[in-house]
UniProtKB/TrEMBL annotation, chains A, B:
Any Pfam family hit: TetR_N
Binding region for DNA: 51-70
Protein name: TetR family transcriptional regulator
Keywords, alphabetical: DNA-binding, Transcription, Transcription regulation
Entry's Gene Ontology molecular function annotations: DNA-binding transcription factor activity; transcription cis-regulatory region binding
Keyword Ion transport: no
Basic and acidic residues: bias regions: 1-12
Residue ranges of the region described as Disordered: 1-27
Lineage: Bacteria, Pseudomonadati, Myxococcota, Myxococcia, Myxococcales
Taxonomic superkingdom: Bacteria
Length: 225, 225
DNA sequence: GTCTTAATTTGTACTCGGTATAAAATTGTG
DNA sequence: CACAATTTTATACCGAGTACAAATTAAGAC
């Protein structure tokens, strides 16, 4: 069966140009609606006490549609996670004559200074992570994301230093940095929960800096330090 | 990986006096049988292609019994994982005047020297981790175990230095060490897969030592270094 | 040995996340 | 309107894990 010109055209236009017709708009709206309702339900009742069917029903949509937009249930809560990777990539790309680790340290300080969302400790953020802490599945997903981040950062470091992709030292430095970030972040959350007030980022930065000096020490003699 | 008599004794006597009647013997046998058959099936067909029902049927036992001994399917493959914790605890308890990090470094070198099971790179071990690498669920469980280990080691470090239980520096040092171990171990597996021969542990130790110097650097000024 | 009691095993039925598939509804286009 | 492409839906299924009561089995007393 030979294909018509229109079929060929349609397939070619699909990947690049976004027509932004009624179809795409509705899709985005549906996706957003599902995500919002899911987040609301999860925060109210807890992740494990809300089924995907609940979410679908509350969004007036079938279960299949939910899984059509969000492959796993956890993705309903963790949206927008690869912004971090882009941030790291940019920092490494524009590192100039600084070492990769130094560039990342500068990025961290910038983020804290400008109260970026990743380090801001508002009650909303704390509530978000409370839901995560109460759910084994969400905690597992968090670990998975951490591991992906570690792997990606390792690749970026190796690329930035002109080293082979799997360079163990790059992987090591990435593991140390991501680990330090994790610990510092959890510590900040913990302090914010103990003391009722918002937490000053000095402690966070100090703990994180310990991680950076550790990474530098591990990378001594390599092109990453 | 055969366990020593001292380990088995210590673990069994721990809860209370257990009469070694027919009942307990049968239980141990059943448990062992299930575990063995499961391991065999998983290594043959891959973790995801064997259902718990398959394991139960092959062991002439009901599904409920399987879950009675092993709460989750992953536990059928990951048995005996808290031996590590005991090893770490012993090393820290007998550290004498050395710093906690120094004591752990000594432990690592000892383990490598005496070709302990945790660092031995036999084809069997490599096959084990191949099964893990091919299964998302087992990889997730690996991450979970890593996290538990990190938390426990953090507590042990704090206790060993007389610091409060949640001391962030202890958590940081633990995260750095566990991360370094993970990277070094994966690297060793990778090398063992590329080169066909058994891998000399020098590279593993060198990479791990980078992690220890990193941890020392992060702990400078604290009682851990 | 038998009887009683406690522990273990089993069958059954269920929940929930996730997939496969094909039919139905919706949208874009001529 | 008609037709093709895309999206949504219904339905049926699989596998991990749980709840619960019935059935089996070992331990201990007599």
């Amino acid at each position: 069966m030979p294909e018509t010109d229109r079929q060929r055209e349609g397939r070619q236009r699909a990947p690049s140009a976004k027509p932004d017709g009624l179809r795409e708009r509705k899709k985005r709206e549906t996706r957003q609606l599902i995500s919002n309702i899911a987040t609301k339900l999860f925060t109210e009742r807890g992740f494990e006490h809300v089924t995907v069917d609940d979410v679908a029903a509350a969004a007036n949509v079938s279960k299949m549609t939910v899984f059509n937009y969000f492959p796993r249930k956890e993705d309903l809560f963790f949206d927008r996670s690869d912004d971090v990777q882009q941030l790291l990539r940019d920092a490494l790309d524009s590192r100039g004559r600084r070492s990769p680790v130094a560039a990342l340290r500068a990025l961290a300080h910038e983020l804290v200074e400008q109260r970026h969302g990743f380090v801001k400790m508002t009650p909303g953020i704390a509530g978000f992570w409370k839901v995560v802490a109460d759910s084994p599945a969400l905690r597992a997903r968090t670990r998975e994301i951490s591991e992906e981040l570690e792997r990606d950062l390792g690749r970026m470091l190796a690329a930035s230093a002109g080293a082979p992709e799997g360079d163990p030292i790059a992987r090591l430095v990435a593991a140390l940095l991501v680990g330090a970030w994790r610990v510092a972040f959890r510590d900040a959350l913990h302090r914010q929960r103990s003391a009722r007030a918002a937490i000053s980022p000095e402690v966070f930065l100090e703990l994180l800096d310990h991680g950076f000096t550790a990474a530098s020490a591990a990378a001594r003699g390599s092109p990453y330090a």
